[in-house]
Amino acid sequence: MPRRQNKGIHITSGDALVDFLFAQALRTLNQTVGDIFLNTAVFFVSRKKKKGGKKSIQTLCGLLTEDDDIHLSASKSLHPNRRAIAKTLLHEALHATFAEMEERHILQFEDRLWERLSPQQISLLCAYVPRRVGRKHYDR
Ligand SMILES: [Zn+2]
Question: How far is ligand 1, taken at its centre, from the CA of residue 107, in Å?
Answer without folding.
Answer: 7
